[in-house]
């Protein structure tokens, strides 16, 4: 029986080696001490998976960046994977070309607005004020509690800061500053067009002023248009949250698209470009930047 058992064992070994050689599973690599065992491979895969999940759930950060020689807003934004507007808004930069080496910039690692809790407000209130989903704030900031302490900095994803809203949800009116000082020469509403001589709807107000008179931003906001616009002539459009102000027939434009301007800042000078009978400012308040049909009477917001 001993010989028979030995022969049977040898046969099994030979048969096994034949199968493993044929399938490629029994190569001589097992003699290589550097070869990973299946257990090691499994462990390494699990480690890589854990690392991936940790990176995926990593909290977005607020960066404090010091401008270097040769930097531009665009290059800094590109390097950090965000839009230039995110840097401009969070630092209230008026002209994207006016940054200098040594200047410190603060911005999030994701497009959005840095919000500092300055009162005992609830997360729900913040989300409602900025018209975003509360869960998106929790996710981006990895909040463990919705109770916020004063001084806490939050990243509000995909939010454009609005320091001056033209109208609040409660119906409260915000006050705009007069863009120029002068008499209203044509009011909002239907009128006889001074050039076409037909009755048409005037979507803003005309304010008479001398050529070259500074035109001021009626509210703080982002320059979303600065250029020549058909019958409007030289035009500036500012965005204030969900509303817009338009300044037309200007002589010279003083701002560029993407720039942030403060309330009362000079954005252009009075002129008579486009379809105009003489120097004046045509001023509109719009609900939609590109829709002249969605306007409201500017006098409702002026003191």
From TrEMBL:
The keyword Hydrolase applies. Its EC number is 3.4.24.-. Residues 35-66 form a coiled coil. It comes from the Bacteria. It is an enzyme of class 3 (hydrolase). GO terms for molecular function: metalloendopeptidase activity. Pfam families: LysM (PF01476), Peptidase_M23 (PF01551). Residues 63-107 form the LysM domain. PROSITE patterns: LYSM (PS51782). Keywords: Coiled coil, Hydrolase. This is M23 family metallopeptidase. It comes from Proteinivorax tanatarense.
């Amino acid at each position: 029986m001993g010989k028979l058992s030995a022969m049977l064992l040898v046969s099994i070994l030979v048969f096994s080696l034949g199968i493993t050689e044929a399938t490629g599973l029994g190569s001589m690599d097992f003699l290589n001490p550097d070869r990973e065992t299946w257990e090691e491979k499994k462990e390494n895969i699990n480690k890589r998976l854990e690392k991936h999940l940790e990176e995926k759930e990593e909290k977005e950060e607020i960066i404090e960046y010091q401008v270097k020689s040769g930097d531009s807003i665009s290059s800094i934004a590109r390097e950090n994977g965000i839009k230039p507007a995110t840097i401009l808004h969070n630092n209230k930069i008026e002209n994207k070309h006016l940054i200098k080496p040594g200047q410190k910039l603060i911005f999030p690692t994701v497009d959005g607005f840095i919000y500092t809790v300055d009162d005992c407000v609830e997360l729900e209130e913040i989300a409602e004020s900025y018209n975003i989903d509360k869960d998106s704030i929790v996710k981006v900031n990895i909040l463990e509690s919705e109770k916020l302490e004063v001084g806490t900095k939050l990243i509000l994803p995909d939010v454009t800061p609005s320091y001056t809203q033209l109208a609040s949800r409660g119906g409260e009116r915000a006050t705009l500053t007069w863009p120029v000082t002068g008499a209203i020469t044509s009011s909002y509403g239907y009128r006889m067009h001074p050039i076409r001589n037909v009755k048409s709807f005037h979507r803003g107000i005309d304010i008479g002023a001398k050529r070259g008179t500074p035109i001021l931003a009626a509210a703080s906001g982002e320059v979303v248009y600065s250029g020549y616009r058909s019958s409007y002539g030289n035009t500036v459009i500012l965005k204030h949250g969900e509303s817009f102000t338009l300044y037309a027939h200007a002589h010279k434009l003083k701002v560029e698209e993407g720039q942030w301007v403060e309330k009362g800042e000079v954005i252009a000078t009075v002129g008579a470009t486009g379809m105009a009978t003489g120097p004046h400012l045509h001023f509109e308040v719009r609900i939609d930047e590109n829709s002249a049909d969605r306007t409201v009477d500017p006098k409702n917001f002026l003191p």
